[in-house]
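Practice problem: predict the structure.
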Amino acid sequence: MNASRRTAPVFPEWPQYGDEERTGLIRALEQGQWWRMGGSEVDSFEREFAAYHGAEHALAVTNGTHALELGLQVLGVGPGDEVIVPAFTFISSSQAAQRLGAVAVPVDVDLETYCIDVAATEAAITPRTRAIMPVHMAGHFSDMDGLGKLSADHGVPLLQDAAHAHGSRWRGSRVGETGSISAFSFQNGKLMTAGEGGLVLFPDQASRDAAFLRHSCGRPPTDRKYFHQTSGSNFRMNEFSASVLRGQLSRLDEQIDTREQRAPVLRRLLAEIPGVVPQGRDERADRVPHYMAMFRVPGLGEQGRNELVDELVARGLPAFVVFRTVYRTDGFWETGAPEEGVEALAERCPNSEAIASEGIWLHHRTLLGTEQQMHDVAEIIADVLGAK
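Answer:
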């Protein structure tokens, strides 16, 4: 790779912050109560985030993994139950089920959108299936029409992993308007962040109340006698994180607007590079926040892909290899794993295998750059590939 060594322009930094976060932190500090049971920041953030996503009920928690785990608990998932997850996703999707003693059942994804495949999901449903967990990969909604029909036909609820999907819409409906529980993440790289954090949206008050108990050690909010009504843990978000996230929410719309303008430009430019296949888009997903700009380079192989990412990073692009398939990690097999081995699962998940070995993603701050910078990104990728 000894081409012309063109390097990337300077992209916006991430995380972004300003007076909104500064003011919020001081407000949280000066209220004199720094946990949610005495302060007002978490309550306010829950109301604001729920309203933005078209939901009535929200519960802020410590991180996105706990958000998924809590959602599964509310759905009654426990030891021996099966939870269908995409094979291509971050490991939290499967680990949230496995932490509850459930079996995570990986299924293949669509090769265009990288989201869970409806036919593969239906084929994996058994009498033990207790939940289906679609992951809205890079902010692209999974096929909620097909999944919604599956859920209704088989009586299996959906738990949306919306860790990448802040502000997404499916045929005009926001995440909170789709009728199922959804879980978000506010980890440092996410579209909104307080370093860590998570949140669950619920379609009804009863589910939210059940989740509140479990996220607060089984203790009701008005309890003064340590009467713990159910098992649980401490998943409570602190007031400082919530104050930062309120500021983050205030600029989310503008950031999504920018990424929605830049993403089609970059996708078109990448598609013009020989050998590059950008992630597709289901047009029913009518607002995509673009957590990542993702693409594949088929035929390059995993080692070649890794070398390509290293070179892109050396040229100044915020490039990363994509997730491994969940069953190709040691952690997946420690507990709650299917009876089939790795190769049997891989045979059933050819699209996931291809994406995991060929895929690259660019951090979403890339898409906050200028339109000219989208051309610069594509030129660097073409330059590096041409030198291979």
